[in-house]
Design goal:
7-stranded parallel beta sheet, 5-stranded parallel beta sheet, binds (2R)-2,3-dihydroxypropanoic acid
């Protein structure tokens, strides 16, 4: 009998079919968002699960399913996993880095540009039928080219955004990261390492790409927003909770910064009601990696991980992108 796995959200049918070659698969074509109790129940008897960022795995879920061995997340971020709990119980977790880097960087750059050039706000104005004449300061925004790009979190996606800014738009690129990058990477991105306070003070366009953790919760809140230029924009494509959305909505309403572009939200899919009231924010529903090719590549990589980690396929025992490979040694 084949081992059982759960595909916890709806995904490409072809990917589910590939999993069926090796496993008894319980899938979720109706794309129901399971409650914790349902998730615990659905995981019964399963040795692996294909998850997305909305599937929360904590100690309670794991303890109710001690047979679980592998969690394959179709996302680069994995703050939906309690990693300490998984590692302590020997559960191998995998994610999908690299395959989404350039697509996500494209989107981050697009969102930053839409924010700086007031594209959503002006489109809404046009659709409302309010456009009756051209005038000199109609939806004036701020330039991207030759401006200062500030990147908070300089992993793969941050570096890809830096390259777009430096090489495509001749921006001055500053970054802040937990650790300074190798000089050769700094040179290829034409990026200069600065402290967080300097980054916030000098950025014309701040783009947040750092991972979410307890430590990065509200890394940008009222005190940080107060350091930014009144003409600055803020773009968050990382995770909800890194920015204090209530403080951001207040800063936008009071024009203490010019505008924001947000693809991620605290408590998403719920959006802070005050953000919905301010005009100077572009809001998108967590779609930074959403191109057909990239979503398919992410799903394929998550499936590759699940298949290999459970000992099947050409890479049996060697999942391509483990998060906690130490559990494989134990
Ligand atoms: C990721 O890959 O982490 C994206 O945010 C999608 O969840």
């Amino acid at each position: 009998m084949k081992p059982q796995v759960l595909v916890a959200r709806n995904v490409f049918p072809e990917v589910v079919e590939r999993l069926r070659e090796h496993f008894e698969v319980e899938d979720n074509p109706g794309d129901r968002i399971y409650t914790k109790a349902e998730l615990i129940e659905r995981l019964k008897g399963k040795v692996g699960a294909f998850t997305t960022g909305s599937v929360m795995i904590d100690a309670e879920v794991l303890d109710a399913n001690p047979q679980l061995r592998v969690l394959a997340n179709m996302a680069v971020g994995y703050n939906n996993f309690d990693m300490a709990a998984c590692t302590a119980r020997g559960v191998l977790c995998t994610n999908t880095p690299d395959v989404l880097t350039e697509t996500t960087a494209d989107f981050g750059f697009a969102l930053m540009m839409a924010t700086a050039r007031r594209i959503a706000e002006s489109e809404h104005y046009l659709r409302r039928g309010e456009w009756s004449k051209w005038f000199y300061d109609m939806f004036v925004g701020s330039d991207i080219h030759h401006a200062t790009l500030g990147i908070l979190g300089m992993g793969r996606i941050g570096q890809a955004i830096a390259r777009r800014g430096a090489h495509g738009f001749e921006m001055r690129v500053l970054y802040h990261n937990r650790s300074r990058l190798d000089p050769s990477i700094e040179a290829s991105c034409k990026a200069t390492y600065v402290g967080k306070e300097q980054l916030l003070r000098e950025a014309d366009h701040l783009v947040i790409v750092m991972p979410y953790s307890k430590e990065s919760h509200h890394a940008v809140g009222a005190p940080e927003l107060a350091l930014m230029k009144p003409t600055a924009t803020l773009t968050n494509i990382a995770r909800g909770g890194i920015v204090d959305d209530a403080a951001l909505a207040k800063a936008l309403a009071e024009r203490r910064i010019a505008a924001a572009g947000l693809d991620v939200f605290e408590g998403e899919p719920t959006v802070h009601p005050d953000l919905l009231k301010v005009p100077n924010v572009v809001l998108t529903p967590h779609i930074a990696s959403a191109t057909v090719a990239t979503r398919r590549a992410m799903a394929d990589l998550a499936a590759d991980n699940l298949i290999a980690a459970l000992g099947f396929g050409p890479n049996a025992g060697k999942p391509p992108t483990p998060i906690n490979p130490e559990v494989m040694k134990s």
